[in-house]
Amino acid sequence: MKTSTVSRVLTLMLCAFIGLTVLTSYYRYVIAQDFMVTYEIDCDPTSTYCYIGCEDDDCTEEYFYQEVERYAATLLEFCGEDITDCEASYTCMTNEADCYVTSCNAGDSPDECAGPNL
Amino acid sequence: MLCYLYPEPTYLIFSNDLPALLYYSHIPTALIALLIALLVFISAPRELLNRLLCLILLSFTGWVIINLLAWTLVQGQWVLFLWSLYGMLQAAIALLSIYFVYAFVRGKPMPSGQKIMLAGLAFPVIFFAASDLNLSGFNISWCDAFGYEGQLYLAYYTALGALAFIWIGWLLLKGVTELPRAERIQRAVLGLGIEAFLLVFFGGIYFISYLAELNILINTDIEFYTLFSMTFFMSLIAWLIVKFKTFNVGTSATSALIVTLLILTGSQFTYIESRTGLIITSITLVLTSILSVFLYKTVRAETEQRKQLQVLTTKLEKANVRLKTLDKQKSEFVSIASHQLRSPLTSIRGYASMLSEGSFGKIPEKAKEPLERIETSAKRMALAVEDYLNVSRIESGNMKYELADFNLKDEIERICDDVRPTALKSGLVLLFRTNLQSKAIVHADVGKTVQMAHNLINNSVKYTKKGSVTVFVRDDVSKKQVYVDVIDTGVGMSQDTIDILFQKFSRAEGASKVNTTGTGLGLFVAYKMATAMGGDITAHSEGEGKGSRFTLTLPLAM
What we know:
The complex is a heterodimer. By secondary structure, chain A is of the alpha+beta class. Chain A is 30% helix and 24% strand. Chain A folds into two domains: 1-32; 34-114, no CATH class. In chain A, strands 1, 2, 3, 4 and 5 form a five-stranded antiparallel sheet that branches. By secondary structure, chain B is α+β, with helices and mostly antiparallel strands. Chain B has helices at 20-43, 48-72, 76-83, 86-106, 112-127, 151-173, 181-213, 223-226, 228-244, 252-266, 275-357, 365-396, 408-425, 446-462, 495-500, 511-514, 522-532; strands at residues 137-139, 404-407, 429-435, 441-444, 468-476, 481-488, 536-540, 548-555. In chain B, the strands form two sheets. Chain B has a five-stranded mixed sheet with strand order 3-5-6-8-7, with helices on one face. The chains are: A alpha+beta, B alpha+beta. At the A-B interface, helix 1, strand 1 and helix 2 of A face helix 2, helix 3, helix 5 and strand 1 of B.
């Protein structure tokens, strides 16, 4: 069985197309960092409604957090690669597009949420 | 963007924070798949089937490596980049699997139309791989992208897996009942392996992603187990390679299997924690290595012998064909030559006889002896020609038998009466005895039976210098057989001579000293005739100088 010309042309086209896609993906995610990121920030349940997270699988120790979702390139600009100890990571900047700080919904179950009235 | 909760891995993949099963499920599986891919490709790089299997395995290896890196790396952008390639690799595995099974079942490349269709199905996966439809974000707290996977995109390339599962099932089952058993087994084994792999791999990954997206499944470690489906598939492929030489993989299959065995044993080090376990695994690895060396050497020796045997068999087959052709040509030559000899011989015998009888006037006394010699020689030559013709007829399958019921005892007695004067002339006693419970009516060709019996009795007379020749006709009604024993006190034979006695042109050792006129065809012809009529001829002797016994067996008429 020898591969036909159609096969060769098709394979070449597919390889070129795949190569182009891989390069595009590389540029988008690695170079341009054109994507959204989500991360958790510390939260005080006495003043804000916070999500409850577990420190281990058995959930022997809990912690409280809010979720931040923002554009990766912007976060990189303000904080660099590592957001630990970066003040700017806690709040959205003025006029910053696509940046959301999400707190737990007050109406949610107390198993998932902790807040002033829960 | 660093996943700030996770430690940096050493050498890209090693992290103490991750479960040992991650390495056990990924590293050996990738190595085995890569090894078999290379083995299959190197064995026959121009074979489409080998190329396709190699591509499937390389795609799978790529997926496993990417998955391992996605688990260990903490740079979000890199994890996301690698994550974006899953769809393309899974689509490649699914579509190449269809093409692979098609080529395996049909034994030819897929038609261009179907190839274009497969490429068309892959197009959306490739086109949208770098788009938000595939991945739009990353969770740096969890270091994953489950929450940002496009469900439509994920469902599409999983559907390609489902399509492959159905298409392959249809290809394998179509017309399977009409196939020979070996091909059915090959199809069943391949089908079981590839279908199990597609079902577990695609199904498992889709449901794990889906459940993780819904936050129902928190621990996605279960994904590791799906990779073992490829190990199962590869085991069956290895079995096909060894059992049926599928994919034209020769001796190197053993090497591959040994390496696989060592990888599997060695990979247990990745998750062993106890000291005892470490010692046991080390001993197992050493023993496996030693046994592997023995296995490799044995298989290599056997394979070399098999190759030599194959070469010899091919040569023998060619020689056999050549010999058959030559034998046929010889038979044709003998037949033509014998027919051409028979007519002049008949004239010589006829005219010599007429001259002896005085049909052309009185013959001088001095000419009588030469005339007798002419007659005897011509008669001998006519018998030899008849033998050659019989051999020619037997070998070409043209010997005709006119079967009828007749009394064998009467015929044998008549032959004895005919031969007795010759025996007496040689100083021998020719006795005729019977021990019959039936009338000895046999169903055979009379002429040929007489010829056989005449031949046996004459032979005994020729090869007996002194003593007697006894012809004994007996029967065994329960076995429905009649036997004619020709027992002499002649030269006898060794067992070696008896073994070759009924072969063409074979004569007993020293026979030419006693009888110079034999052609070595009489017994061959008689044996062939007897067996063709449902009977047999056997020879027995206590040894040289101790006489012989020939037994002609014929079936009793029903």
